[in-house]
């Protein structure tokens, strides 16, 4: 079944994701400093970030952050839940270097997953200071995003 949005030929719109953190200063340092996301509006309880053109909002909710399970994918335990973005390969490579330089503790080191198969992709998993899991990925061709 084709997506109704795709069939309408609409352009991709920014998504919005609100997620829990236990320390706004640590979230600001990580998303703004390490990840390089511009900060938008904020209060004493939340911060908006420009996450590669999408709006993510870190909400102060101590004890609610972090992954709760993992699934086996191509030889790795993938944290669930997680969120992230599909980058262009050169942007993914630059971010991987930036995260390594910042001393990021990767849950799954930058790697190529599904080598030689449909959907081959560069991927990396890491956690923010609150324990939320993120996945950053890239494809040699965006046509492979939904390859079966």
Q: N-to-C SSE series? A: HEHEEEEEEHEEE
**Number of helical elements:** 3
Indicate the percent of residues in helices.
10-25%
CATH superfamily: 2,3-Dihydroxybiphenyl 1,2-Dioxygenase, domain 1
Low-confidence stretches: 1-5
Tally of structural domains: 1
Q: Radius of gyration in whole Å, from Cα?
A: 16 Å
CATH class assignment: Alpha Beta
Q: So what's the overall shape?
A: globular
Overall pLDDT metric: 91
Task: Kindly report the CATH topology.
Answer: 2,3-Dihydroxybiphenyl 1,2-Dioxygenase, domain 1
The percentage of residues in β strands lies in 35-45%
| Strands, total number | 10
Sheet with most strands: 4 strands, mixed
Distance between the termini: 14 Å
Sheet/helix structural class: alpha+beta
Output the strand order for the largest sheet: 1-4-3-2
In the CATH hierarchy, the architecture is Roll
Outline the fold blueprint.
Layout: H1 4-7, E1 16-21, H2 24-34, E2 38-42, E3 46-51, E4 54-60, E5 69-73, E6 76-80, E7 82-87, H3 89-101, E8 106-113, E9 121-127, E10 133-138
Parallel strand pairs: 1-4, 7-10
Antiparallel strand pairs: 2-3, 3-4, 5-6, 8-9, 9-10
């Amino acid at each position: 079944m084709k997506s109704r949005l795709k069939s309408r030929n609409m352009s991709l719109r920014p998504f919005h994701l609100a997620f829990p953190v236990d320390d706004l200063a640590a979230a600001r340092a990580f998303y703004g400093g390490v990840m390089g996301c511009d900060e938008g509006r904020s209060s004493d309880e939340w911060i908006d970030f420009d996450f590669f053109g999408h709006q993510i909002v870190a909400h102060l909710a101590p004890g609610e952050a972090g992954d709760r399970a993992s699934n086996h994918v191509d030889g790795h335990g993938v944290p669930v839940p997680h969120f992230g973005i599909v980058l262009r390969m050169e942007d993914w490579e630059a971010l991987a270097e930036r995260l390594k330089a910042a001393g990021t503790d990767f849950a799954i080191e930058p790697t190529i997953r599904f080598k030689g198969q449909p959907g081959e992709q560069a991927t990396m998993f890491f956690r923010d200071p609150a324990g939320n899991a993120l996945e950053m990925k890239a494809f040699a061709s965006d046509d492979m995003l939904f390859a079966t």
